Task: inverse folding
């Protein structure tokens, strides 16, 4: 049920981001959708993705606000500074409240979160550490696919640079 509410919130925030007239409000609405995605990752028991999404979202918001702040100065001069400041403070308060509840729900450090985690810990013996055991024993196909994608990317770069080098020699 919570996931459905967050998805509805993300859809509404995305529509608001598209329909806003000024860029700053659009960036803030877009960041609200990203925060919703981070919360959805937390509900789906993927805290690593939630943290990554949050870091990427914060960096993108900083860059986008910096890029748009000079274009939206008339909004600050028109007397909307009170509204902008109030909206910012409300957003920060909501973010801190959601962060508090999300961090409170995390399990104690070192305890397995799900039954699958306990299986990884029990069957992951024989390696230097548990991360190595999971990567080598349980995620080997994923690692093989990542290596294949990396190899294809390197080959693509070599082909493009070789073609560019041959055309410069002629």
Result:
């Amino acid at each position: 049920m919570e996931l459905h509410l967050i998805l509805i919130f993300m859809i509404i925030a995305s529509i608001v981001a598209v329909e806003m007239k000024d860029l700053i409000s659009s960036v803030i609405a877009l960041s609200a959708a990203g925060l919703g995605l981070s919360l959805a990752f937390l509900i789906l028991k993927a805290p690593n993705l939630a943290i990554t999404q949050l870091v990427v979202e914060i960096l993108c918001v900083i860059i986008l606000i910096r890029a748009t702040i000079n274009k939206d100065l008339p909004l600050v001069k028109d007397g909307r500074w009170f509204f902008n400041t109030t909206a910012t403070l409300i957003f920060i308060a909501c973010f801190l409240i959601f962060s508090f509840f999300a961090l409170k729900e995390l399990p104690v450090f070192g305890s397995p979160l799900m039954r699958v985690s306990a299986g990884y810990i029990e069957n992951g013996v024989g390696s230097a550490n548990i991360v190595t055991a999971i990567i080598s024993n349980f995620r080997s196909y994923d690692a093989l696919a990542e290596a294949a994608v990396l190899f294809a990317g390197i080959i693509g770069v070599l082909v493009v640079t070789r073609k560019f080098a041959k055309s410069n020699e002629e």
Observations:
- The chain has two domains: 2-104, 115-169.
- The chain has a mean pLDDT of 76.
- The radius of gyration is 23 Å.
